[in-house]
């Protein structure tokens, strides 16, 4: 029975701690900023736990002591009063030292975070929209400027500067495994420097309530070796792949004739809308609708057929399409790798 209780306890603890790991956890840092913050979290938590235990002991001891009855309650014992005063003064002094110490630690941690961006080679502008992320890679050569959505590729091991802004309401950019959070505010440009130590995929989440689909405003940082990242950028700069099958060709025609073009851009075609995600290479992304659905033919069809069912309140309207028309558009989009 005792053994069983131990097994249950160990399982519960393991499952509990499992929640601290993974691709979206401030306690599982994968970059210098997140490591600094995780260290700070553990130190603050540890120190505060020690203080809490000491306060509880200081409270419990007098509560459990048997009260001493004074023969003369009104006579003041000067020695005892002095001892009490010393204990209180020591506690006040220690509290001040701890608070000043924690403030200094936070200050130096901030300096460490600021130093990450001292030599950034890459600048990415991230614009928050209800409810997706516009991602624009800046470059001195205008033809190399790249706009995509929701997934942010970065070179691993290199500091990257993110310029954060918004077109509608306040959002907050948070990829816990890499960095702290920072707001995206309309009319303002906030700067967040991030770095991923190793290649990997790190999930991010909008961290400021921004309307009905706040919870479905996910993002992914995809850190890759430099060569792979450069190849990705070059691929993304290419215009959209031309449709190869008859069905996909019909889909392209439909896309260009229907309201889709009012909002979406597909490079190399007349579709040039900029209020919704750029679809030039949509099929190269891993998810749809800012992390709401995984990329697949079925999910593309579901999303286009019933965006309000998938993501109620989203600004993607229902476009009236027959079954064949829907299949054709999906076949076209599926080819946009
Ligand atoms: Cu965007 Cu919450």
Explain what the structure shows.
The chain is α+β, with helices and mostly antiparallel strands. Helices cover 42% and strands 17% of the residues. It has helices spanning 2-18, 32-64, 78-116, 226-237, 246-257, 260-263, 297-305, 307-310, 323-334; strands at residues 122-129, 132-137, 146-149, 151-155, 160-166, 171-173, 182-184, 190-194, 200-205, 218-224, 287-288, 293-294. The strands form 4 sheets. It has a 5-stranded mixed beta sheet. Strand 1 and strand 2 form a beta hairpin. The chain is elongated, with a radius of gyration of 28 Å. Dinuclear copper ion (CUA) binds at residues 128, 131, 171, 206, 208-210, 214, 217.
The low-confidence runs, each spanning 5 or more residues with pLDDT under 50, are: none
Q: If you average the pLDDT, what whole number results?
A: 91
Report the principal-axis shape: elongated
Structural class: alpha+beta
Cα end-to-end separation: 58 Å
| Strand segment tally | 12
H/E order of the elements? HHHEEEEEEEEEEHHHEEHHH
The strands making up the biggest β-sheet line up spatially as 3-2-1-5-8
* Helix coverage percent: 40-55%
Q: Helix count, per DSSP? A: 9
Ligands and ions found: dinuclear copper ion
Radius of gyration: 28 Å
The percent range for strand residues is 15-25%
Largest sheet data: 5 strands, mixed
Keyphrases for this structure?
337 residues, 9 helices, 5-stranded mixed beta sheet, 12 strands, alpha+beta, binds dinuclear copper ion, single chain, elongated, 17% strand, 3-stranded mixed beta sheet
Please sum up the structure shown.
Helix content is 42%, strand content 17%. It has nine helices and twelve strands.
């Amino acid at each position: 029975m005792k053994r069983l209780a131990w097994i249950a306890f160990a399982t519960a603890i393991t499952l509990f701690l499992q929640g601290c790991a993974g691709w979206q956890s401030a306690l599982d840092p994968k970059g210098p900023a997140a490591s600094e913050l995780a260290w700070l979290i553990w130190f603050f938590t540890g120190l505060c736990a020690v203080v809490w235990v000491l306060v509880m002991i200081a409270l419990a001891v007098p509560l459990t002591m048997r009260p001493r009855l004074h023969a003369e309650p009104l006579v003041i014992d000067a020695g005892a009063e002095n001892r009490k005063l010393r204990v209180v003064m020591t506690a006040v002094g220690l509290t001040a030292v701890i608070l000043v110490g924690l403030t200094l630690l936070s200050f130096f941690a901030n300096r460490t975070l600021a130093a990450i961006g001292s030599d950034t080679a890459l600048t990415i502008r991230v614009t928050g929209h209800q409810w997706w992320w516009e991602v624009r890679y800046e470059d001195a050569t205008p033809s190399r400027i790249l706009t995509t959505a929701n997934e942010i590729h970065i070179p691993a091991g290199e500091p990257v500067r993110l310029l954060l802004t918004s077109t509608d309401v306040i959002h907050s950019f948070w990829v816990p495994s890499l960095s702290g959070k920072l707001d995206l505010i309309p009319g303002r440009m906030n700067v967040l420097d991030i770095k991923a130590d190793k290649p990997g995929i790190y999930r991010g989440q909008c961290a400021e309530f921004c309307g009905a689909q706040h919870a479905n405003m996910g993002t992914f940082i995809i850190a890759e070796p430099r060569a792979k990242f450069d190849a990705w950028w070059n691929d993304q700069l290419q215009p959209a792949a031309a449709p190869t099958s008859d069905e996909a060709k019909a889909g392209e025609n439909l896309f260009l004739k229907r309201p889709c073009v009012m909002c979406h851009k597909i490079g190399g075609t007349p579709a040039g809308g900029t209020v919704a995600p750029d679809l030039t290479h949509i099929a190269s992304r891993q998810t749809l609708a800012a992390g709401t659905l995984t990329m697949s033919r079925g999910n593309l069809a579901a999303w286009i057929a019933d965006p309000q069912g998938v993501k109620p309140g989203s600004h993607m309207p229902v476009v009236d399409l027959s079954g064949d028309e829907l299949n054709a558009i999906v076949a076209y989009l599926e080819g946009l790798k």
